[in-house]
Write a structure and sequence with these properties.
Blueprint lengths: L1 H19 L5 E8 L5 H16 L4 E8 L4 H12 L5 E10 L1 H8 L2 E4 L4 E3 L13 H16 L3 E6 L2 E6 L3 H6 L18 E3 H6 L5 E2 L3 H7 L5 E5 L4 H9 L2 H20 L5 H19 L5 H19 L6 H17 L10 H34 L24 H5 L3 E4 L6 E6 L2 E7 L9 E8 L2 E6 L1
Helix pairs in contact: 2-3, 3-4, 10-11, 10-14, 12-13, 13-14
Amino acid sequence: MKKIGIISIILFLSIFAKAENPVDSILVYKFNIKQEIGPAVWRHTQQSFDEAKKINADYVLIHMNTYGGTVDDADSIRTKILNSNIPVIVFIDNNAASAGALISIACDKIYMRKGANIGAATVVDQSGNVVPDKYQSFMRSMMRSTAQAHGQDTIINGSDTTFLWKRDPNIAQAMVDPSIYIEGVIDTGKVLTFTTTEAMQHGFCDSQAEDIKEVLKIEGIENYEIKEYFITPLEKTIGFLVNPYFHGILIMIIIGGIYFELQSPGIGFPSAASVVAALLYFAPLYLEGLAENWEIIIFIVGIILIALEVFAFPGFGVAGVSGIFLVIFGLTLSMVDNLDFEFTLPHIEPIIKALFIVIFSIFLSIAGSIYLSKKLLTSNSFKYLVLNAKQDKNDGFVVGDNQFDSLLGKTGVAATILRPSGKVMIDNDIFDAKAEYGFIENGEKIKVVRHETGQVYVIKS
């Protein structure tokens, strides 16, 4: 009886396990394209396909609603789809325009909601203006080859054999080129966009569906499990960090940190703040595919040249000017897609916008740093950050060597560069000194105007 009881329990657990995890369950991996197509969407696509392959998904389903985006990222996504060993279904929930149309045509099956649209794939710049024909030609060829990738249907009528494209390449390129005429489909002078019904008539939509559940039902997938891709907190953080407004704030911190570090010896909090801001600036742009290695190197070289100019070379010359230029150059180009490095009107606009953000942020940073440095010295709000206490001789504080009083008004020469601190020579004696304002070069004549805490303050004589 005991053995019978154990066997019964095992059989029950086996039946329950089968009910919970049916052997014939179809695994569908779903992810969304519901934003402007760019580096982030391309990265999400790669992650989705990698995860789908890892879990042995039977289908990949894209839930799409987009007005398009960058051509290079759309090309990468459509190539990923065409090379996928897992069948890919797209459900167009309203719009698959421009780059979205290219991605949709790459999928094995296309489903559209009633009232949805697909097409209008003409390449435009960020202002909506049509770009030169060589870019249109590239897009036309991609649309054509993507449609051709799905092969042909063979129709046998007696002794006659007819081959028809499953998705007509001419119709695909008519979504880009307004000069194409296809009888009964599109007249010249117009860019082709299909409604759901029109797309079904011409082979660019397999069926109409109102939701994901209906798509799977039409596909004959009844016993299924959907695993969905969710954007991780890291991805959301990266999306926030690549915002141009936040770029401006980070640039202000980078420049402000450098400014304050130059005002004080050693490496402290300003340097740390500047380094952290630089990492937050470049790292997301690098992950997005915007910042290249050489652009980051240009920025670092610029910082090194500025440091050499300040601490090693006298005056402010070639190294300093070159450093400033390289810093601005590196910050600007890191914000711009490398495909935009063609200095024609449609392509120079993103570079100009990025340059404006960098220049304006640097200006605000320097102005704010000068204002803040004054506040640190005068405001009671910052009295705990800056030592402002005076050692008044009426309170018993005296300088051990009274010779400093005799130095007032005397002249000498700078024994080192005063930036603003250094050493001066007066009557063949060396004294610690600080420039009252500005920098004083080695060998320049100086005059003592006051002294304080064992240090003389000098001006150019």
